[in-house]
Structures
1.
Amino acid sequence: MDISTRLQLNNGTKIPVLGLGTWKIDDGDAEKVVLDALGIGYRHIDTAKIYGNEKGIGKAIKKSGVPRKELFITTKLWNDDHDDIIGACEESLKKLQLDYVDLYLMHSPTPVRNESWKTMQQLVKNGKAKTVGVSNFTIRHLNELLSKSKFVPAVNQVEFSTYLYQKELLEFCKSKGIQIEAYSPLTRGRKLNDSKLIMIADKYNKSPAQVLIRWVIQHAMVVIPKSKSRERLEENMDVFDFNISQEDMKKLDGFNENLRVTWDPEGIE
Ligand SMILES: NC(=O)c1ccc[n+]([C@@H]2O[C@H](COP(=O)([O-])OP(=O)(O)OC[C@H]3O[C@@H](n4cnc5c(N)ncnc54)[C@H](OP(=O)(O)O)[C@@H]3O)[C@@H](O)[C@H]2O)c1
């Protein structure tokens, strides 16, 4: 397993298990950060219209010279754009200077989600997206969607970390063939000084961040840590030369404290 390792999604598309998150990287910085990331081996970039950095990322992709088919680019439909989903995707593609994205996600389960999901399937048919999926969907939102559509999302991108171990959601998604992508896997830095995490990290001669990333991968999820720093981009991809033992995985599972560093989508009816 290494940075080029991919997991197969339910439509046959393969997604690199580790990608770069880009929230809070503004458009001015995005070109440099993404060029750095592509230069050291990242091939999977996660963005969204609302991050405001698609243009910078597009420039980096172009400059990098990495063949398009080696890349896996995700962007997302913002909540205000559900009345023109095709137009919103085309707008993102224009900024990214791409003909298609590898994954287009509905950013949140808005009230019109089930209708919108039907339109999102058109994006696959018309070649604008290789795959479509959802984000911030709970089991309730997914059950409702699946009761209305035979078309199963390939991915559900949700907040997921050692400190927010959503076991039930993970098992539910597995049973339906939906790949979980873990966002905020580093708890946005909040738990990196937790002494019990540091103890495990020291044992493997790895950093706390590397243990949190590896924990996600060993649970067979995709992980998208964000960093602007070249040093930390390298650190975050250096997670393929060690294996957390079953015993330590159990210990880490037990660190769960239902900690959300973003928001709880359960509140969306
Ligand atoms: N679908 C959604 O609704 C949604 C919501 C939130 C996030 N996401 C996606 O998921 C990605 C990741 O989540 P996130 O950005 O919220 O949080 P995260 O990846 O858990 O944490 C990022 C923070 O950790 C720091 N950091 C990164 N690597 C580190 C390391 N090795 N050691 C110490 N600190 C480190 C970063 O600072 P530096 O940059 O200074 O290194 C940044 O402050 C986002 O960027 C975005 O692409 C999606």
2.
Amino acid sequence: MTNPKFIPYTDFELLNEKEMLKRSKEFYDKIKKRRTIRHFSNKKIPIDVIKNCLLAAGTAPNGANMQPWSFVVITNKTIKKEIRIEAEKKEKIFYTTRATKEWLEALEPLGTDEHKDYLEEAPCLIAIFSKKIDILPNGKKVKQYYAQESVGIATGFLIAALHNAGLATLTHTPSPMGFLNKILNRPEYERPFLLLVLGYPSENAEVPNIRKKPLNEIADFIE
Ligand SMILES: Cc1cc2nc3c(=O)[nH]c(=O)nc-3n(C[C@H](O)[C@H](O)[C@H](O)COP(=O)(O)O)c2cc1C
């Protein structure tokens, strides 16, 4: 028998409705300004800001509290270049042979192609890995539960935290991403989830003019 331990939950902040509305609107107003940036300046980012944002990501809900994620923060120029070279190789194959016509049509408004200058231009990359298993300090292997969902939520927290801290991001998924294990020396049981590019937008950075679906297209209310 296990003996779960509980502590009083005293961190909850009970708000009145007016305050709830105000805060929800403020959050929406802030988060709707986030955009995926594909042109970065080379201005450095304070590492403590990244650390705080990673700590925020690490608070995400996750399957059985296994916290099945690893974040690898890369500011080293040589490693960034290695990643760019490998990513561009994969992306070239993707854009010329692997992607279906339908997929290329969906990507068209974004103006993306196999060139990934930002992997070297941006001051920082965060490679996010999802663990298939974990190895405890005593060497015991443990299963992970809902790892992909959990890492997706943590990544969402991370992107929101970075945006809140005044940084721009790009969610990049070169496909396949196994080369990240090799370059970053990660064990086989860590599966690359995505590569987050972060920094400040370059001076004349532009973003695709895309539309976000209104509430009635994304939500149903059943009373
Ligand atoms: C899982 C995932 C994978 C993505 N992969 C890429 C990518 O490889 N390259 C890229 O330029 N953008 C990528 N994006 C960014 C999307 O294209 C972008 O989020 C979408 O067009 C909406 O634009 P917004 O982020 O500015 O709102 C990805 C986003 C997600 C969530």
